[in-house]
Amino acid sequence: MSLRITIAFIADAQSKAAGSDLVHRFRNFGEALYREFRLSGHAKISIDEIDSATDRIELFVNTKRHIGGVSAFIKKALKQHNLEELVTVTRG
Fold first, then answer.
1. Taking the model in full, what pTM does it have?
2. What's the CATH number where 27 sits?
3. Per-residue pLDDT reduced to its tens digit, 12-50
4. Is 57 exposed, middle or buried (0-12, 13-18, 19+ CB in 10 A)?
5. In angstroms, rounded to a whole number, what is the distance separating the alpha carbons of residues 27 and 29?
6. How far is Cα 31 from Cα 28, in angstroms, rounded to an integer?
7. Cα–Cα distance, 9 to 79 (Å, whole number)
8. What is the extent of the structural domain holding 23?
9. Parallel, antiparallel or unpaired: strands 43-44 and 3-9
10. Are 55 and 16 a contacting pair, CB within 8 Å?
């Protein structure tokens, strides 16, 4: 059973994203997730979804055992890409 995690811009950030570098930074963040989880196998994420992302990215954690590590990496990557104040991360 996989657990879905959705990373999405908050409303204010989404309106600011149009015509700014936020979408580019968001896609770079998604590529960092893709690289990490492609190698570790702890989560699945589509590179096609990342390449077309404008406001949200979804990934699927393979087992509950990996949720802590996946969540920690997401937080770390958000901070590295200066997006931690602009997105929400939800599980479900």
1. 0.88
2. 3.30.70
3. 655 565 556 888 899 999 999 999 999 999 999 999 999
4. buried
5. 5
6. 5
7. 14
8. 3-91
9. unpaired
10. no
High-pLDDT (> 70) share of the chain, %: 88
Task: State how far the Cα of 12 lies from the Cα of 19, in Å rounded to an integer.
Answer: 14
Alpha-carbon gap, residue 23 to 16, rounded angstroms: 10
Domains: count for the chain: 1
Helix (H) / strand (E) element for 48: namely helix 47-52
Residue with tokens 């989560």: 43
- Which long-range contacts does 80-85 make (Cβ < 8 Å, 24+ apart)? 80/29, 80/32, 81/25, 81/26, 81/28, 81/29, 81/32, 82/25, 83/22, 83/25, 83/26, 83/29
- Main-chain phi, psi angles of 47, to 5 degrees: -65, -30
